[in-house]
Every structure is written in C-alpha cells, then in structure tokens.
Amino acid sequence: MQATRIVAVRHGETDWNVDTRIQGQLDIPLNDTGRWQAGRMALALAHEPIRTIYASDLLRARETALALADAMDLPVLDAPGLREREFGVFEGKTFAEIAALWPEHSLRWRRRDPEFAPEGGESLLQFRQRVTRTAQDLAERHAGELIALVSHGGVMDVLYRAATRQDLQAPRTWALGNAAINRLLWTPQGFSLIGWSDTNHLMDDESLDEAAA
C-alpha cells in the first residue's frame, strides 16, 4: 500500500486560548487573530495537491478548515473523531480555576495520568484511542494521496506522540501552535514524522502555544 501524506493543522486562535480557558468540546469561534491565522495557513497550502480536507466538527476547527477549503475549492468533510478531548467539568474553566476547585484532580491532569478523566470527560487513554483510530481510518482511505486534517491542540499532541513513539506521559518538548502546519506520513506500519510546527506563514503573528484547550 502506498503511503498517505498528511498535513495536520491546529485551529486558529480563540479568545479562550488567550484566557487559558479549557474549551474541550464546547463550540468556541475563532477570534480576529485566529481568522487571520487561518487565512495565512490557507495561502501557504493553497498550491499543494491536497485531495480531501477533514476537520473536527467543532466551530473553531471548521472555521479554520473552511479558509483552506475556500482557497482550494474543496468541501470540508466533518470528522467528529478529530474533536478535542472531552474535559467534562473542566470545560469553561481556566487552568487557575481548575487548580483551585479540584486541586487533586488538577494535579493528576497536569501530571498526564493516562487513566484520569475529569467528571464527564475522557481519559488520555480513551482520547488517544479515538484520535489514532480516526486518523488511521481516514489515512487508509487515501493511499498515495495528500490529505488535510484540521483539528485541535490535544489531537496534534496525540499525532506527534504516535509518529515519534512517545509515551503518553512523556514531557512535551514540541510546539502546538495555532494554525501551525505539521506533516506526517501514514502506512499500515503506523505514522511517521516529516515536519512539525511550520509557522513561517505566521511570522507577523504572536500566536499562543496553548496545549490543552
């Protein structure tokens, strides 16, 4: 089977990114900076032979994907499996509020306990299984092609770890910037990393590298 090339893009900035407020699966739109970032990303990729654009169906990812779709005259196909991690009661709270309200749970979350799930949310193990299964299924449909996956910071983190064989609890040393362009390869043997966190198209931008929202 031929390899599938993947361009993976995190959504543009939202006001909640700026506030370090957990978005999870709440439907938060892009802010003005995020829309600018999405437009710059679309210009950077407009001449690449992308065959299909898949996106999380959450508004911030879909808005970002639509910028690329408009530049390439392609539709955006919803992929709910690419949604951000479900954070349950953490959603809508800032990092500081979570630490104050649930100090023990906050500690388990920040230590990346794979089995910890906020009330009503997903554990890292559940989240990884959902994301990798979805990304593999989509890649398998497009052997020999280039596809775009537009999603969220947590999803980018899962894909990076899958491609570099990093453990779920390994300290993060890689960027998860808004609207950065990341490149992966998929074969039946798994994902591999081609390039990560290309932000040349955002050189005038002060985008945040917010990891969990």
Overview of this protein structure:
The protein has 213 residues and is an alpha/beta fold. It is globular and about 50 Å long. The protein has helices at 15-18, 32-45, 59-72, 95-101, 103-110, 124-140, 153-164, and strands spanning 4-10, 50-55, 76-78, 146-151, 181-187, 190-198.
Q: Tell me the CATH superfamily.
A: Phosphoglycerate mutase-like
Q: Span between N and C termini?
A: 35 Å
* Number of contiguous helices: 7
Instruction: Tell me about the largest β-sheet.
Output: 6 strands, mixed
Q: What Rg is obtained from the alpha carbons, in whole angstroms?
A: 16 Å
Give the spatial strand order of the biggest sheet: 3-2-4-1-5-6
Number of domains: 1
Structural topology:
Elements: E1 4-10, H1 15-18, H2 32-45, E2 50-55, H3 59-72, E3 76-78, H4 95-101, H5 103-110, H6 124-140, E4 146-151, H7 153-164, E5 181-187, E6 190-198
Parallel strand pairs: 1-4, 2-3, 2-4
Antiparallel strand pairs: 1-5, 5-6
What are the salient characteristics of this protein?
7 helices; disordered C terminus; six-stranded mixed β-sheet; 36% helix; alpha/beta; Rossmann fold; 6 strands; 213 residues
Report a brief summary of the structure:
With 213 residues, the chain is α/β, with parallel strands linked by helices. It is built from seven helices and six strands; from the N terminus they run βααβαβαααβαββ. The chain has a single domain, classed as Rossmann fold (3-Layer(aba) Sandwich), CATH 3.40.50.1240.
